[in-house]
């Protein structure tokens, strides 16, 4: 009897989880479906779900109009570069906070996180003027630096949490065997924290890929990533929803595929510290 | 002979070298709409003629406005040509942010630009942005519903007729609404419509001393009429409807009349997208017999930011993109229905273009708007559906939110006007007017 109740509960839980999952996924599914509709079908009332004349025309138009590969390459460089640079800076920072904490470590961590609470537009003009002075407006280098700085608090926090789980005695043993600080971090700490670093890299790559405020404001023609590619298909005077959807699908497709193949690491990254 | 050949070879080499040295790459910021996208597709023609390459930055209208304003105000220099509207042109020109377009070539024929467009894009008599295409607003209406209502639309109707017709055409049980109007808050959304409408009711934003005028009887009449019309004959949820939402409603046969941008005419008469394409006709925006009609005037124009190092090439591009030859190029490639409208007088004298059903009404609508004297009473500002001062974008959007809240039934017309008067007065005082 008790077993039957458990099964029933499991079924309910499963149905509930699927329902929530579908609800969250629905906007993306709708975008994908709309990208295969004509503009007239895209705004049909009542909305058409599956039974319509599927067309690839929107993808052909988007492909013809925009240099997709250039936007894609910029996204890869900006998201990849900023994440790698961020990790290189964050590993030693997280190490010092995790293994040689001071009285102020907690305060520093909180202060770092507090920078994320400032609305980005609040520092737009200082950063814009700085970029003009430095001559790095509309360059991938500029975007890599800005994206790295934006995501650095999250990277430090994630790595700090992972490092805290590693017993300090192991590092002490390495030191007693004569390892230098550099060797300790590169040869002992980093290999042990590889799963944590991998999930940090994945999560921050996705965050940098999707970032649309700085990438739209600091780029023009040369360094514009896929967020600018999507923005170029939005129009308040004209119903171009099907083309906008096709552009959106093309922009999220690489990250969707990457996310699918690295689900486990992502889930771990998102739930770090939740379960000990 | 040898000397002659050598001279020819040298001069050819010099010519090639000079062209290569002169060839520039222009970065152009533009909006995402059909005419601009068509221009991007035809850029090869410009490159072939001049050797200059073009890099496009296409953005959604509001993002574009913020990006180009930010860039020009900080002298970022990211763009060699910017697509700007009638609102920005006189303000930016007064700040010395734009290069004057007073030395365009004779072949360009600047006098052919429609006078209303030229006035709206000039500052102190000098042109600062060349119109790529222009628009006004007009009534698009369903001929079948009008006939069924037993009414006939005049070419130049009054607001009273529009109200009568809208109520007669409304059949809420079958989801047919007599009139669809903008309700979404924003200076370029509901306030574009309501400001133009208020002109025809005898209202104005400011008197000659920059005092806000929302406490006037004319504004009370405007807003009360609009709210009453929408309550009786408008679609549900109209306070969130902008151009696209109303376009979708009209194309699906749910609006009897739609008063909006003339550019919409090509959408609603396109049988690929519109279910009512063969049942649409056009009329001038309504009036109240006071002079101004309730239509606006707008142009997307090309301007050169002051300080660009590529001014010469940028002017060449502007001459190419806004020329008579460009219009013929579009007609040749895409047909006359797709040429950029509303910029040049000669287009409306072209026999091929006269066959386009909405061409004459578009021209009449543009000509009936006067950006230099938009209201019944004198005003200290330029602009038909906006006030060409930097503060207007912020104030217009706040007032738009109050009027949109009134349309949503969250407050009365009196309350909305009181708040509009107070906030406009505060903002203008703070700005030093």
From TrEMBL, chain A:
Organism: Maritimibacter dapengensis
Family statement: Belongs to the binding-protein-dependent transport system permease family.
Signal peptide span: none
CDD domains on file: TM_PBP2 (cd06261)
Primary location recorded for the protein, binned into one broad class: membrane
Keywords from the named record: Cell membrane, Membrane, Transmembrane, Transmembrane helix, Transport
Record-given protein name: Carbohydrate ABC transporter permease
Lineage: Bacteria, Pseudomonadati, Pseudomonadota, Alphaproteobacteria, Rhodobacterales
Cellular location(s): Cell membrane
Membrane topology: Multi-pass membrane protein
Transmembrane segments: 12-33, 71-96, 108-131, 143-163, 184-209, 240-261
Occurrences of domain ABC transmembrane type-1 (ranges): 72-262
TrEMBL record, chain B:
Keyword Cell wall biogenesis/degradation included in the entry's annotation: no
Subcellular location: Periplasm
Primary location recorded for the protein, binned into one broad class: periplasm
Leader peptide range in chain numbering: 1-20
Coiled-coil regions listed in the entry: none
Keywords of this entry: Signal
Top-rank lineage group of the source organism: Bacteria
Keyword Signal found: yes
CDD domains reported in the protein's UniProt record: PBP2_TMBP_like (cd13585)
Family affiliation: Belongs to the bacterial solute-binding protein 1 family.
Protein name: Sugar ABC transporter substrate-binding protein
Organism from which the protein derives: Maritimibacter dapengensis
């Amino acid at each position: 009897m008790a077993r039957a109740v458990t099964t029933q509960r499991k079924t309910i839980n499963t149905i509930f989880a699927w329902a929530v999952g579908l609800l969250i996924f629905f906007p993306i599914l709708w975008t994908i479906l709309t990208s295969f509709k004509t503009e007239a079908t895209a705004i049909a009332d009542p909305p058409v779900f599956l039974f319509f004349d599927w067309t690839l025309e929107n993808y052909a138009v988007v492909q013809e109009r925009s240099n997709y590969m250039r936007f894609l390459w910029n996204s890869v460089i900006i998201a990849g570069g900023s994440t790698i640079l961020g990790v290189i800076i964050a590993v030693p920072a997280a190490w010092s906070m995790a293994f040689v904490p001071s009285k102020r470590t907690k305060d520093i961590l909180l202060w770092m996180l507090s920078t994320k609470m400032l609305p980005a537009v609040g520092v737009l003009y200082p950063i814009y003027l700085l970029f003009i002075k430095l001559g790095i407006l509309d360059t991938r280098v500029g975007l890599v630096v800005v994206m790295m700085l934006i995501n650095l608090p999250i990277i430090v926090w994630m790595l700090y949490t992972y490092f805290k789980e590693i017993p300090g005695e192991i590092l002490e043993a390495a030191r007693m065997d004569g390892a230098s600080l550099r060797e300790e971090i590169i040869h002992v700490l980093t290999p042990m924290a590889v799963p944590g670093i991998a999930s940090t890299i994945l999560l921050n790559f996705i965050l940098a890929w999707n970032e649309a405020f700085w990438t739209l404001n600091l780029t023009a023609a040369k360094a514009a990533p896929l967020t600018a590619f999507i923005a170029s298909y939005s129009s308040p005077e004209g119903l171009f929803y099907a083309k906008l959807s096709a552009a959106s699908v093309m922009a999220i497709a690489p990250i969707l595929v990457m996310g699918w193949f690295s689900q486990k690491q992502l889930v771990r990254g998102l739930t770090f510290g939740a379960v000990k | 002979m040898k000397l002659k050949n050598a001279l020819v070879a040298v001069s050819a080499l010099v010519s090639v070298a000079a062209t290569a040295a002169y060839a520039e790459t222009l970065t152009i910021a533009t909006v995402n709409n059909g005419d601009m996208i068509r221009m991007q597709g035809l850029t090869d023609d410009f490159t072939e003629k001049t050797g200059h390459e073009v890099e496009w930055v296409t953005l959604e209208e509001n993002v574009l406005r913020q990006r180009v304003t930010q860039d020009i105000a900080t002298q970022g220099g990211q763009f060699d040509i910017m697509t700007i509207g009638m609102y920005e042109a006189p303000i930016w020109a007064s700040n010395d942010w734009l290069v004057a377009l007073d030395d365009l070539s004779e072949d360009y024929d600047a006098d052919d630009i429609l006078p209303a467009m030229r006035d709206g894009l000039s500052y102190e008599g000098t042109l600062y942005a060349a119109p790529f295409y222009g628009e006004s607003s007009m009534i698009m209406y369903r001929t079948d519903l009008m006939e069924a209502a037993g009414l006939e639309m005049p070419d130049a109707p009054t607001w009273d007729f529009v109200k009568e017709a809208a109520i007669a055409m409304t059949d809420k049980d079958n989801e047919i609404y007599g009139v669809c109007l903008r309700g979404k808050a924003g200076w370029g959304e509901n306030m574009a419509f309501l400001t133009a409408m208020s002109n025809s009711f005898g209202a104005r934003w400011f008197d000659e001393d920059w005092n806000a005028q929302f406490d006037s009887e004319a504004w009370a009449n405007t807003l009360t009429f609009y709210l009453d019309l929408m309550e009786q004959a408008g679609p549900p949820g109209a306070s969130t409807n902008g151009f696209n939402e109303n376009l979708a409603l009209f194309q699906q046969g749910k609006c009897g009349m739609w008063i909006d941008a003339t550019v919409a005419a090509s959408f609603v008469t396109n049988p690929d997208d519109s279910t009512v394409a063969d049942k649409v006709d056009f009329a001038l925006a309504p009036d109240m017999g006071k002079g101004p009609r309730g239509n606006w005037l707008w142009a997307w124009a090309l301007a050169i930011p002051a300080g660009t190092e590529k001014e010469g090439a940028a002017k060449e591009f502007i001459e190419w993109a806004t020329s008579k030859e460009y219009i013929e190029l579009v007609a040749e490639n895409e047909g006359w229905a797709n040429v950029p409208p509303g910029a040049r007088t000669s287009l409306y004298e072209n026999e091929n273009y006269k066959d386009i059903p909405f061409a004459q009404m578009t021209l009449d609508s543009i000509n009936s708007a006067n950006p230099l004297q938009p209201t019944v009473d004198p005003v200290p500002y330029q602009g038909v559906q906006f006030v060409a001062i930097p503060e207007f974008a912020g104030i217009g959007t706040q007032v738009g939110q109050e009027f949109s809240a009134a349309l949503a039934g969250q407050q009365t017309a009196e309350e909305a006007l009181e708040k509009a008067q107070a906030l406009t007065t505060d903002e203008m005082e703070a700005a030093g007017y």
